[in-house]
Amino acid sequence: MLRCILRAKIHNATVTASNLEYEGSITIDAAILKEAGIHPYEQVLVSNLNNGERFETYVIPGKKGQICLNGPTARKGVVGDRIIIFSYCWLEDAEIKGFTPKIIKLDGKNRILK
User: Quick check: pTM over 0.85?
Assistant: First the structure.
């Protein structure tokens, strides 16, 4: 049996920009993506801590510190909102034992906390 399991999470990211006139997606600092093991164009679920909105979109790599809501997702939050970004994978029951998701925590300026 396959189960959908949290693979990676970027916790407490701060929205730095919003671009309604874009085709869609979320732009995330490329270094944060690399640390989390999330690939460009990978599907993610985003949860907004400020307003409770949740939405799915895909990722595009951005510049240092950048977290930008693009296209329709720009309506789901504003600059300064804190969000959590989730990436999931499908695993067999035997693969789940001992599996640990990659959790990345950010400070208020989208710097990785060690």
Answer: yes
Active site residue 58: yes
CA distances from 59 to 24, 31, 32, 107, 114 (A): 9, 13, 12, 20, 23
Instruction: Return d(Cα 81, Cα 44) in angstroms, integer.
Output: 17
User: Would residue 47 show up in a list of annotated catalytic residues for this protein?
Assistant: no
pLDDT tens per residue, range 35-73: 999 999 999 999 999 999 999 999 999 999 999 999 999
Q: Which of 22, 58, 87, 88 is catalytic?
A: 58
The CATH number of domain 2-90, selected from 1.10.10.10, 2.40.40.20, 3.40.190.10, 2.30.42.10:
2.40.40.20
CA distance 84 to 9: 7
